[in-house]
Design brief:
The chain is α+β, with helices and mostly antiparallel strands. 35% of the residues lie in helices and 33% in strands. It has a four-stranded antiparallel β-sheet. The model has no long low-confidence stretch (mean pLDDT 97).
């Protein structure tokens, strides 16, 4: 199983913006067939090192991740995120 993690830092990290982002990300679940599992959460520590929202997705393999990244629903969310987010970080790894 391939795990894809993305951390998002919002330009304006209000509760409403965090909620809007988590809602858009969660809506990808069930909408993209290659996406096996999705978890989304808002940061609760609010430290200087923290990002505002985390996304954890799972795929069968790298091909599934590539298809997800090209999927029109994912592309729509990415376009919206580009206006909201100042910084992202990612890591991809195989579990097990």
């Amino acid at each position: 199983m391939l795990i894809h993690i993305v951390l998002f830092k919002l330009k304006n990290p209000t509760a409403a913006n965090r909620s809007a982002l988590t809602g858009r990300l969660r809506a990808l679940g069930g909408a993209i067939p290659f996406l096996r599992k999705i978890e989304v959460g808002e940061d609760v520590s609010h430290s200087d090192r923290s990002f505002d929202v985390a996304l954890i997705t799972r795929f069968d393999d790298l091909d599934g991740l590539a298809l997800y990244q090209q999927h029109p629903r994912h592309q729509e969310v990415l376009a919206w995120i580009a206006e909201m987010v100042s910084e992202t970080r990612t890591v991809d790894f195989f579990d097990g």
